[in-house]
Automatic annotation (TrEMBL):
Transmembrane segments: none annotated. Keywords: Methyltransferase, Transferase. CDD domains: SpoU-like_rRNA-MTase (cd18095). This is RNA methyltransferase. Belongs to the class IV-like SAM-binding methyltransferase superfamily. RNA methyltransferase TrmH family. GO terms for molecular function: RNA binding; RNA methyltransferase activity. GO terms for biological process: methylation; RNA processing. It comes from Thermobifida cellulosilytica TB100. Residues 33-107 form the RNA 2-O ribose methyltransferase substrate binding domain. Pfam families: MRM3-like_sub_bind, SpoU_methylase.
Length: 274
């Protein structure tokens, strides 16, 4: 049963939720929007994350088990009209379910004994960032770090592109790249900067066992890569070899290749008990 029914986009409650589309309001409230049944399902799997759920009548009927799960978790479920959902949603064709969620990021110091970490530096495209987050999750990464020069992981497009992975693994937000590399190196990780002109080829590094230990990969902006000052913080710069005629790989594809190569090597080398 719905807690409230909202039929007007002028409702203060609806306006408040809609403001979460803007980064400044998200940061102030430490809340963000997760849209669609998959995102809502994954968010509900993390206790206490979903604060409110907005749903159209059709979506409530279509996703009845999901709505019931929200109610059983004590989440207020609000029924809204198609017009109101259209105002709240950030997609052209809304799926009728939208959750207001609490931030899920953790401090850098919460990463204990990481084996595989992804660091996004100067990554500005939310779709790319969300896709890398999803890939990191699939590859079994221990965490994804969004540096202070990167896109907000709570951007709606990033949340959607992550396909629920935002709720699966630790995410660090807003740390400086020098702090990140210093901390991860202190935790025993080798810092690898992905760069098209990198001195080490990924294949050679993998063959020599250079990916078997704890690794932190730094990925940069798709258009111009990593700044020189960031590359200088890495232990090695690594390029993905191009065997065909393609000029380069895009960010998400290069990240997938690097992360799966690392995951493969690490699984061949089991972690010894402390």
């Amino acid at each position: 049963m719905a807690s409230h029914e909202f039929t007007s986009i002028r409702s203060p409650r609806i306006k408040g939720a809609r403001r979460l589309a803007k980064r400044a309001f998200r940061q102030r409230e430490r809340r963000f929007l997760a849209e669609g049944p998959q995102a809502v399902r994954e968010a509900l799997a993390v206790p206490g994350v979903v604060r409110e759920l907005y749903a159209t009548v059709e979506a409530m009927q279509r996703h009845d088990p999901l709505v019931r799960a929200a109610e059983q978790a004590g989440v207020p479920v609000h029924r809204v009209t198609l017009e109101v959902m259209g105002e709240l949603a950030q997609t052209v064709t809304p799926q009728g379910l939208l959750a207001v969620c609490s931030f899920v990021d953790v401090p850098l110091t919460a990463l204990e004994n990481p084996r595989l970490v992804v660091v996004l530096s100067h990554v500005r495209d939310p779709g790319n960032a969300g896709t890398v987050l999803r890939t990191a999750d699939a590859a079994g990464a221990d965490a994804v770090v969004f540096t202070d020069a990167s896109v907000d992981p709570y951007n709606g497009k990033c949340v959607r592109a992550s396909a629920g992975s935002l709720f699966h693994l630790p995410v660090v937000v807003g740390a400086r790249i020098d702090e990140v590399t210093r901390f991860l190196r202190g935790a025993g990780a080798t810092i690898l900067a992905a760069d098209g002109r990198g001195e080490d080829r990924l294949d050679d590094l993998s063959d020599s066992g250079g990916l078997a230990g704890p690794v932190a990969w730094i990925f940069g902006n798709e258009a111009w890569g990593l700044p020189e000052e960031t590359i200088a913080l890495a232990d090695r710069t690594v390029s993905v070899p191009i065997y065909g005629s393609a000029e380069s790989l895009n960010l998400a594809t290069a990240a997938a290749v690097c992360l799966y190569a690392t995951a493969r090597e690490q699984r061949r080398t089991p972690t010894l008990p402390v």
